Amino acid sequence: MTQPIREIEAVGFLSDGKAKGHLIGGRQVPSQSGRVFDTFNPANGKRLTQLSEGSAADVDAAVRVARAAFEGPWSRWTPYQRQSLLVKIRDLIEANFDELAMIETLDMGAPLSRTKNLKGPILQMIMYFSSQTMGASGETLGNSLPGNVTTMTIKAPVGVVGGIIPWNGPLISQWWILGAALATGCTVVMKPAEDASLSVLRVVELLHEAGMPEGVVNVVTGFGAEAGEALARHPDVDRVAFTGSTVTGRKIVEASAVNMKKLQLELGGKSPDIVFADADLDKAVPGAAMAVFTNSGQVCYAGTRLFVQRSIQEEFTARLAEFSKTLRVGDPLDANVQLGPLISQKQLDRVLGYVEGAPGEGAKLASGGARVGGDLSSGYFVEPTIFTDVTNSMRIAREEIFGPVISVIPFDTAEDVLTMANDTEYGLGGAVWSRDMSTALKMVHGLHSGTVWVNCYGMVDPNVGFGGIKMSGYGVKGSRNHIDAYLYAKSVYIAG
Ligand code: NAD
């Protein structure tokens, strides 16, 4: 079912029609080169506004400001001061959330039904980070050495953090960096994705409104190969928190070697979603569908390799196809729509390339498989698509598609499915659906991935954390380990 596109609704933030500057030291600043680029609404291909195209010189200016802010009073704010600021930020984000959700929807196409629902998780993240400001404390070891020596560790913020994030959910993903930096006393230069920068610009305006000192968080907009590369390479950036593709992650590792930056890499995935014959299919069918179709498949941990036990394969795929046909694809501003467009023509071509190539490798199309036309033909919409008879060696089962495409792969035994599930270069998410806890636990222990969900998919609690292994990266978002990564332990010896 499709819905027609409505005209873009005016948003205060966009209504002045002016090109947006970088945000450096709390002020909008144009690029030193004077260059700008267009940013589009992927639902209809219309230009939303123009953004400043950042260069190495703009990145350098932002890093200098971030360094000065770090050396200023900010890194000596008490934990109570940082906590109060985060609480004010939480309130301001809550009060402005409708506008933020609208900006994100217009900018990257996620349905308003999804972006509005991010309010709870984002406020929860900010509260989590506000609760962690007190944790930046070290240990006192007393007289652990001979003589009258007191030894201790002090936890100190690492310094300037370069945050580089993708387009598939900046409204939420920026908080993993902002929250940790604000909780620990670091400063930040953010480089959002060229296709979806607007929610980051608006959020950082709100941070200043809440009382964050100027220069603590700065934003340089622009392209990865220029602004992103300059940030990853900059010798005065201490840490890079990168979320994006594995291909770019490798470039970040190389660029960061200049000054041995600490790195956090949240990269791609090809997560297994495993359904045993004894699963509650009333839950597993919609669960497995939305593990991929949420955000039109543009989710790093999407359960794109759907392993279904052979005895229920026919029934399960029939129900999956039936369910996917009930999903409403269309105008992301329509409250009833569940799937919006892909982010860009480039992403559309990429996804359709995989879909068109799959039958040649032997996969059978069970549902979807086409670009959506009619009223939606000026946007980048793709039908929820399901392939059956997929083997784990086909391209659609090995490469990250980042679109609404499920590959159903049959399996016989728990041992077989573990071998296939782990036969991938990635290790991000994974799930098992079974009523038998011992089967579920076998998968929990056997899967090589950073997260495993049992009889559910995609939950993330900032207290617990989320991260990948293998080519999905390293470092964790959320949990005490995340906070610790923004701090270093200074060892102190005091001879009495
Ligand atoms: P991408 O790697 O193309 O871009 C991500 C960011 O890196 C953008 O801001 C881009 O401008 C920048 N960039 C590009 N080239 C760069 C370079 N040479 N140096 C520095 N920065 C550079 O990724 P994308 O297509 O925007 O996003 C999709 C990818 O992100 C998928 O692979 C997805 O799995 C991954 N992702 C991972 C997670 C996670 O938590 N593991 C979360 C969301 C998305």
Automatic annotation (TrEMBL):
Keyword Oxidoreductase recorded: yes
Active site (UniProt): E266
Assigned protein family: Belongs to the aldehyde dehydrogenase family.
GO molecular function terms noted in the UniProt entry: oxidoreductase activity, acting on the aldehyde or oxo group of donors, NAD or NADP as acceptor
Keyword rRNA processing attached: no
Entry keywords, A to Z: Oxidation, Oxidoreductase
Taxonomic lineage: Bacteria, Pseudomonadati, Pseudomonadota, Alphaproteobacteria, Hyphomicrobiales
Record-given protein name: Aldehyde dehydrogenase (Acceptor)
One Pfam entry name: Aldedh
Coiled coil: none
Highest taxon of the lineage: Bacteria
Every Aldehyde dehydrogenase domain range: 30-492
